[in-house]
Structure formats: C-alpha cells, structure tokens
Amino acid sequence: MDFLRPASWEEALAAKAEHPTAVPIAGGTDVMVEINFDHRRPEYLMDLNRIADLTEWEVGADSVRLGASVPYTGIMEHLSTDLPGLALASHTVASPQIRNRGGVGGNLGTASPAGDAHPALLAAGAEVEAESVRGRRLIPIDAFYTGVKRNALEPDELIRAVHVKRAGGPQQFSKVGTRNAMVIAVCAFGLALHPGTRTVRTGIGSAAPTPIRATAAEEFLNAALEEGGFWDNGKIITPSAVKRFADLCAAACDPIDDVRGTAAYRRHAVGVMARRTLTWTWESYRGARRTTEGAA
Amino acid sequence: MTATGAPTGLTQGSRTKGGIGESTLRPDGVLKVTGEFAYASDMWHEDMLWGQILRSTVAHAEIVSVDTGEALATPGVYAVMTYDDLPTDVRHYGLEIRDTPVLAHGKVRHHGEPVAIVAADHPETARRAAAKIKVEYRELPLVTDEASATAPDAVLVHEHRTDRHAPHVPHPNIVHRQPIVRGDAGAAAGRADVIVTGDYHFGMQDQAFLGPESGLAVPGEDGGVDLYVATQWLHSDLRQIAPVLGLPEDKVRMTLSGVGGAFGGREDLSMQIHACLLALRTGKPVKIVYNRFESFFGHVHRHPARLHYEHGATRDGRLTHVKCRIVLDGGAYASASPAVVGNAASLSVGPYVCEDVDIEALALYSNNPPCGAMRGFGAVQACFAYEAQMDKVAKELGLDPVEFRRINAMEQGTPMPTGQPVDSPAPVAELLRRVKAMPMPPERQWESSRGADVRQLPGGLSNTTHGEGVVRGVGYAVGIKNVGFSEGFDDYSTARVRLEVAGGRPLVTVHTAMAEVGQGGVTVHAQIARTELGVAEVVIRPADTRVGSAGSTSASRQTYVTGGAVKHACELVRERVLETGRRKLGSHHPAWATAELLLEGGKVVTDGGEVLADLADVLEDEAVEAEEEWRHRPTEPFDPRTGQGNGHVQYSFAAHRAVVEVDTELGLVKVIELACAQDVGKALNPLSVVGQIQGGTVQGLGIAVMEEIVVDPVTAKVGNPSFTDYLLPTILDTPALPVDVLELADDHAPYGLRGVGEAPTLSSTPAVLAAVRDATGLALDRTPVRPEHLTGTASQDPPGGARNVTSSAPPGASAKSRSARGT
pTM for the whole thing? Predict the structure, then answer.
C-alpha cells in the first residue's frame, strides 16, 4: 500500500487523477476501521490532512460552505445556528474522540445509508462540491447517493466541501439506536422547515439502500400547509395531517431486517420520528412567529 | 467478628492501618486509568514472532483438505501447523471434558473454530499467510436448538463420547442433565389457588472484556517454555497445556500478565497452546494477540437458555410448588456446561421457600458458539425467569410483588431444592425491604426551564423524544448465587507468606497463583497480611506457577478461598514468629508465656496492648515462611436422579430495584436508577465491594436491554462480532447505582465474608425487565428486550437468531400461557 501525502489541493487532484483507485483519508474514522478489519486494502491511501482549507468553513448569504474535513465537533460548536439540523446530527456521531476527527466529507465519501449527516443534509438542502483536474462541479445532495455505499463521484474526483443551505426556519434531527450514546443508527430522520420557500424537506437514514427524502410526504405536507394557510396563520397543524405526513414518511422507507433491527421497526420508528420532529419544528416556528409579532 | 445476624457498620477497621475493613486503594488503579498499566497485549520480546490462527468460516463441516503450501512459502513465515503437526497423542483439551481439539481434526463444529496456526515475523504477514491456507469444507447438517439436537435422525456433534456424563444423558447431544425432585410437586399443585406458567428465552451474552486474549510464549533452553498470559486460572491452563506439548508440568512455566477483564471468559484456554506450539516449533518467542473480531470467537459465552416454569400459590400468597425445565445451549464443546447445569438446576427456584419442586436442567451440544463460564454461571438465566414468574404470580394474586416475595423469602435454615439447608444468614426479605425503602428518583427529571434535557430521556442525545411517549416503571428482583466451586469439587487455594526484616523494617511477602483480573485480590491480600501480621509493608508477588494452585478467579471465590489461604498462611507465620520470640526472649517477660499475643505495628504485643518486643529483635536475620493449601468445607455431588445433596458451600444474596423510563412509542429504554442491597458477610474492602456490586449491576443491565451475540439460526454463524453491533452499556446508559451493603457474618468463612462478585449480576436483569413490563404492560419473556419487542414490530421470520423471539406480542397484549383457577 502506497501512502500519498499531497501538500496542496492541486497536488491531491493530480494524485487522484494519476491513481483513481487511491482512497482519500481525512479523519480516518471509516477508512481505518475497514483497513484494520481487512475489509479493504487500497493500493493507494491519500492523506488529506496537510490540506488546511479542508477544515475551514465560510458562512455565505444563503449557504455555508463547509470544508470536507471540518470535524463534527466544530459543527456542533460553531454552526448550530446556521446548520441546526446538521449540528444535532453531529451530536449523535459516535464518541467525542471520533467527533474530533470525523467530518461530513467522510460521511459523503463512504455514503453508508447509516451515515449520521445524510438526513440532515437532505432536509436542509445541500450541494456537494466535487473537483478533479478536469474541473469543479456541484452535485445536488438528492442526486449524490446512487446505491448502497455508492455515490455520484467520478473516480478522479475528490470532495472538497459541501454547501449547506443556511437555516431559514427550525430544523430537527432524531436517530434511533439501541443505546443512549455511541451507537450506529438503526434509523434516523431529519426535518427542516423552509419558511422562505414555504416548503418542508426531510431526510431518512438507515431505512433504505441509500439515504432518501420522503418526497411524497413532503409534497402532501407542503400542499396541506399551503391550503390551510398555516405558514401565515401559524396554527397548530391538524393531527390528521401530521399523521398522514408521518405515514407517508414511513411508507417512503425500504428497510431490511438485520442484526440492528427489523424492517418493520424501522418503518414504524421513522413514522414516530417524523411526527415528533414535525411537531417540534412547527411549535418552534409558531413560537418564533409569536415572538416576532410580540416584538413588532 | 460480630454476632451472626447483626448488621455492622462498614467503617469498622482492624487495628492495623491498611488492614481489612479499610478502603485501601488498588496498586494498579492509577496505572490503569492513566493508560500506563502493561496488559498482556503490551508484551514484547526481542526477535519475537507473531502467531495467527485460521478459523473456520462455516459452523459444521467435514474438512476435506487443508493446503498450507502457499502460506508456508510466504516470505517472513516461520511455521504453519495443523492437527497433523501436533507433537503428541494428546490433541484435545477442556476444563472438565477434553473434547476440544487444539486444531480441528476431520471436522469443524462451530463458526470460528481454529483450523491452523501460523508464525511470522510481522502480524500482518501472519494474517495474510493464514488467509492463504486453503481449506475445503463439506458442510454437514446443523444442530442449532433442542429440536434439532434430539430429533431421531439428529447428527451427533460428538460421536463416541466417553465422558462421565455420557452414560446418564438421554441423548448424546446433551452434555449433562440434572433433575431435582423434592417433595411432590404434582400433589402440591392440587393445593394451589393459582397456577402460572411461562416460557422464557435468555439471549447469548458475551463477557466483552476490553483486553483481548493475548500472551507471549518464550522457548526455554531446557526444552521447556515460559508462557506469559492473561488468564483466570494458571494451574488449570497448565494441566491442559503440558500434555499437548509433551512436556512435564514443571517445564511449562506460567506467569500471569496484565489482565484486561475476564468475567469467566478466560477460564477456558484460548491462545495458550497455540503460542507454545509455535514457540517450540520455531525456537523463537511467539506472541499472539486477538483483535476484537477474533475475540468474539476466541472465548466461550454465556449460555443462552430456554426456560419453562410453572409456579403455584395459595390465595394467601404462599408458593405451593415450582416445576421448571431449563435448556441451556452449550454450543460445540463442553467447557463448563456440566457445572452450569448443576447451578441452574440447584438455584432454579430462587431464594424462596418451596418444599415441592420438580426441576430439570440440561445443556445441549450444538453447532452454535461454545458457551461456558460467565459471571453468574447458570444462576443468571434462572433468576431472569423465576423472578418474572414471581411477578406474574403476585399479579394473579393481587399482591404487591415485594410483599409476595417477602412472604416466601427463605431465611437461615431454609432447605434448598437439593435438601441442603442454608446454614448462614439469608436476609432475603431484609434486602428487598431495604431497596424498596430507598428514596425514589424524582419524576420527569428531564424537564427544565429551557425545555427538555434530552440527556435525561430515552434516546439521550439522539434526540428522539422530548417527553412524548415516556412512561416510568419500577421493578424488583432478588437472587441467590452459590459461592465457590460446588458438587464435591476439591476447591482449594495455596498461599506462601514470608515475614522478614529488610532494612531494619519488617516486610511481608505474599505469593499466590491467584489471577488478578480486576476483582481486587491483590489489594485484599495485602490487607489480610497487615491485619494478621501487624506489618505495614506488604509485597504481593506476581502470580505464577512457582507456587501451588489458587484455583480459578471465578465463582465469587477468590477472597474467600485464596484470601482464606493467605489468612491461614499468615496465622502459621505468626505462630512461628511467636514461638521464635518465646524461645529467644521468653525469659525477659512473663507475658510471653501467659498472655494472648498479637503482632501489631511491627511489634509483639499482649492483648492488653503491652509491647514485648520489636519484630526486628525477634527475627533478626531469620525469615519465617509458610506455604499452605487451604480448603473451604467440602461439598457433595448432587444425586443424579433426585438432585439431592449438600452441593454448595455458601450462598450470596442481592436485591435490586430498577426505575426505568420507556419511550413506549419507539421502544427505547432509559434506566434511571438501579438500586442494590447485598449482604457481603464482611466487607474486607468496602470500596472494592461497592465497585463489584455496581459493575455486576451494569453487566446485568446490559443483558436486559442490549447485549446479545446474534447467531443466525440457519447458518449458526455469529452475526455481530464487533463493538459496533454487540452493544455494551456506555456511561450514558449507566444510571445512578445506590448501594446498601449488609454485613451479616457467615461464621464458616474467613472473617465471615461472603463472595460478592456475581450476585448483583443476577437480580439486576429481572429488575430492569420487571420495570419495563411495569411501564409498558407487555409480557416480555425474552432478554435482552429490544425496541422491536416493545413496539410490536419484531419480525416473524428475521435473520440472526431473532427467530426465537417470543415476545412479539403487540402492545396491550396480556401475559401469555397463564391459567388461573378460582379459589
């Protein structure tokens, strides 16, 4: 196994072009486990830790450009206002030690359906900044996950950053595991309200071959909210609509039975999380409206 | 020592500083928490090779061929060995029954069985070379449960059995079967106002010690071998290793290296023989360290069990009879299965009075992973079931579960189902009273002015609830565990104690072969020596085979038995010192002849406190040494048909109250508090005692809500050999653990002490399950209970052993298999 240590992003792109089988490693929290267990033995390992700007982020007008190697700890500490859903998801990643090392770039590169960042990225809306010597492109997060542990990257591409929409409304993230910390997701759910566009977006983890959005549920809810004038009147969403939304989220799942849980449980739990996170975010939205009105 | 039955305070110490009753600190404590302690996996030797084991990829198969050519040709590889390369005709080992091949011969009987071993100059080279060994298997039908084990056409896991249990078992796929019949359960059932039955399933728990199996074998110039290894019982290892190597036992010199936890999982051999074989073959030191994955295959687990119970009671709350049948899955090799069967049978009724019992316990041979010793040893599985039953009966009678237990609680003198009376305090009712009397943790602790504190809620930081669906439940359980080895086993320990004057100061050296696996024996031995010899400075020698056997660090026995041996050797040393003093100095003071003499503060003193001499003046340059074997009272085998007999030497009791909060919609459990009351006879080191109780309690919590090795029922392969999927409780899963320690002396035991380590592991699990039942109203007849069991989403035909799930009743379903009769 050859160990490549590019000193700059350009060197990294060149090395990746020359050795498309090279496996990038940043925090190493996925890659090293696979190597230690002999699940993979890459010809080339490319250490990205010398490239400083991968651990930087930039808060823009509409979105946050989050370097691929920004550790989860950094997201929790610095970005909980702009990226509340992702910050909540970051809290649930493994242990403090792992959160100090791991970042969203690794989650995206591995593209495991159980990656904790995915539901939050899907719900918030994001684009993956991929680059190769041939150029740079932004891949919409909806098109990024292409199969079990497969993504839309070309062999010569590296993930440089992810552009996540700044929160314009409340966001929530829930994850079910069979213990109260340091647990891989049995299933997970992210939800973001986008009052600017009057839409709701979702993300589901570990309940289908890839991370997915519950698009039928979103469409139903968007229509229901619009129809009832809820965005303006700030009323409590009718329980039947919440239930219908939760049922559609559960129906969006395509889960399996495995040692971590049954398919039936995953479907059930996604429905519960959908109902709860919608209730929490909507309560928060209503509360924010009241505060705004009170101040006016 | 206090009068039997009278509780004593925990502060009472001996007259010598650092003696028994004080919470002296562990000598290895700081090293362990700062990461400086040398564990077995840290060992290194110049020129050493690394050993690697090739394990079977299938559970049951004939080995058609093994081709080691390519592995041997790998640069850096020094040796590859298979069954055919073993040096003598002794090619099997085992704790009691030598049924386990050192390397597979002709067939493999479980997933992960060792087939070949490799030594190379780098661990990665060894690992890759092992992967190049080509093994051709022809798969055989599997034995995976009682039905497939005892079917008329069942394939035999072991043909041609010659062990001592073979003649009396009903089927060759049953390792051992122990019935216990006392009174007339059938007739007694006629007196019952209510009869409650239940079927229970206990999952396969792993010891999951953090320090994986490891050791270093160094070939000696005399043709022997020095083995440094993390184990639980050096001399038992030695007895099994030496004949396979073709060496006399004195040429296999064993030294204990740093042990990172054991819990029963190091009672059987793992890499010991393999490392020695490779070292003797190559003439070089060989180190073997399992990784986490291999560790799951490298040691036996706790027996999973199926338990059927029938309890009867009269309307006034007295048990009429208990019938039960306990089927333990021992897996492919016997390990400790026979003794686990004896425990499960004899302790199957729990700490209750019941004169009419009909009990059967047995262990299967199967193609599942081998199971053997683990903390609680057969008593854990039974306690889970009988405590569930006690709650069911209480409910049927409309009685409070604690009150129902109190009515039936055994006490000193109560006969066990084996007919053996419990001949020391049995404060069962008092322990229950104490846990019940503890203040309850406040309700809804998650509520704060700033919203829900998710860390206090089921799911924790996973943020699954802000209080929705959360229901509190409370449950109680109590258990009984035997202490020490039972059924006529010659359970002894050996201690060598030396007293001398070094640099003008008296110094005690204690040498035993006791394996310190975290239980704190090294601390306690020093305390005993200080108490008995009145000397502050005590050196504990490393455990090795240059001294006689200490027996196993298991069965809650080491403080009792090796502690007893150290005490006894100290007493001999003291007598000899006093003899020497009388001889040398007796003429100086009449008290030498007339008074009761003690050793205190490095001096000989009278019981009135008058100093007669310094030890330095008594001993001068003489060292006084004693090495003695010490035994607890003998026990008897159980009668093979009736199970009667004085099989156990001591019992220990603990009770728990569990308070849980369950997210009833998501099936997530947060244990809020697990309070324990335990009688320890005498707390030699109160801090260690509380640590043991808290550790055992958390291990019981683990099997209640998360810990399980999942074995695929179709392939008999292990589905979750990693800490990603074999979940252990983290600190965020660990609740407040208040502990109330009683000290009711057992007059038969050294200092009145009672073995501590296992009892809390028993009652913790059923208390948590009872609390979850209380919160959810579900029957819950299996452990661990998983979210799908609490939400009615357990799969009907899932993979990975969940086939056995019987608690898939939807929320609101009533207890199953219950039949009640009117008065």
Answer: 0.95
